[in-house]
Amino acid sequence: MKPAPSSILLTAPDGSTRQSLLGMNLAELETVVAAIGEPNYRAKQLHEWLYRRRAADVMAITSFSQQLRRRIAETTTLRTLTLADQQTSEDGTIKFLFRTHDGFNIESVLIPSEARDDQDEPKRRTICISTQVGCPLDCKFCATASMKLKRNLAAGEILEQFLRVQEVAQQEITNIVFMGMGEPMLNYDAVFRAVALFTDPENDFVPASRITISTSGLVEGIRRMADEGEKIKLAISLHASTNGLRSELMPINRRHDLSEVMDAVEYYYRKTRRTITFEYILFEGLNDTEEDARRIAKLTRRVPSKVNIIPFHSINFTNPTGISARLHPTTRQQFDNFVAMLRAHGVQVMVRSSSGQDIEAACGQLAVKHGAATLKSEM
Description:
The protein is of the alpha/beta class.
């Protein structure tokens, strides 16, 4: 699949086109303003209104004259997503359904802090962002696999998820996780173009230390992150301690097995000296034994790391078949026992919550149906 463009080109019924500016860097914005005969400083103003002031419409850019705003609006737009629906969980999690300009659906999730009011730790508000429409990797525990892959998202569409959710959130979003629909490493260029804009201090979004990218083990992307000095956090979806089970659950393991993934993780750590997060969903009778705990401890101690233990969340609403239909969450007692076994082996363990499970917004539950109609009438 060819890389997604930095921004979206929309075509109206009359054949005219408008380019989305969101996702463009300063040099690209200079090209836009030069095309209409404006000096470079206009690009700096446009950049500020896009990313720091977060204008939703060209006509809101009051640094420009009305005439200039109209000229820019004739060939460009700032936003391309339509908010089609949102659901709020009883725990405060909010799931957003967005429609793309070409009629596809994606979901983003705003996750409230898990800290109690009487705790001293800072309150986090985390957005879980999608990077593809669907996903091609067919992980057997993930609802997104039922969608298959439609296309990559452009950098502007990735950024717009944050902007639109922030407009709804009552408080500032503090953290970003690329753990929504899709495998981020399969859309590397667009994802890291968005990351560059998120982490630019002048844009006042979220610092690199509060952004995490999760991968199922795409070795090329892990090594590229290391070589390019990307400063965001890296999480590896592990979910099994043997190649046999991991290949059943995650077919990508047949391409990059545990040995190859761990070699890439070691390479990443040597280059960056950053702690790795390993993600591990517990399935009853499959990966929750003492032997699994011992093997996970051996694997993860190869680099400074922590392990996020995640409850399995039902994907029955996708009508799963095969091994997907046979997956069940481990019992509460065995869940706690497994966490205790890992800690006894010296593993730093974090237990992830099931935020948003009642609205199918918890880990692994994002999946939507697609309409066929495009939204050109909304241009």
